[in-house]
Amino acid sequence: MKYQGPYVTEGVAQNNNFICTVGNKKRTYHANIFKKYEERQPSPSLHPAVENACAGFVKEEEEDTEADVMLLEPKRSEYPGNVAINNELTPQQNAEVRELMNEFADTLSDVPGKTTRVTHKIELTDVTPFEVKQHLLLVHAIEAVNKEIDFILESGIISRSTSPYASPITLVMKKDGAIRLCLNFRNLTKIPIF
């Protein structure tokens, strides 16, 4: 992602969007793509030509907030044979644990699956369909978004929909430069019957 700006924020729009002046046009941007702008103080020790020639990246150490978030992995990497079993168990107990793990190997997976045993229906207080306009995606992110959507479609985690309701996606950049797709269901969560 390339840094651009700073831009003047003209106002606040709905759903954490801000209206900014870019050149001589007004654009709407989601709050997740903003970075705090800090103006640098001129360095008295460097000649202006040298200061402009120097560049670098500062990687701030951040607390890892994704520790308990399960990330989608395309290929299975965990199998019953990989599991370390407590060595204080007797050989018979160890064999019983292995047998159970092999019996339920399909449920002991790091790849998300789906079930057909339960269905969920959301009843709405207002059945008027709505469609929230998708935020503009950065050109270089479109390929990554399409790849992620294709993967979760092929995995059976999501399916194609003809629903008259449409909620936008928001991209969250991970520390490693990859993207996370997040769906903005705020308009839908305002109208369910509980």
UniProtKB/TrEMBL annotation:
InterPro entries for this protein: DNA/RNA_pol_sf, RNA-dir_DNA_polymerase
Domain of life per record: Eukaryota
Coiled coil regions, renumbered to chain: none
Protein's name in the database: Transposon Ty3-I Gag-Pol polyprotein
Species per Swiss-Prot/TrEMBL record: Elysia marginata
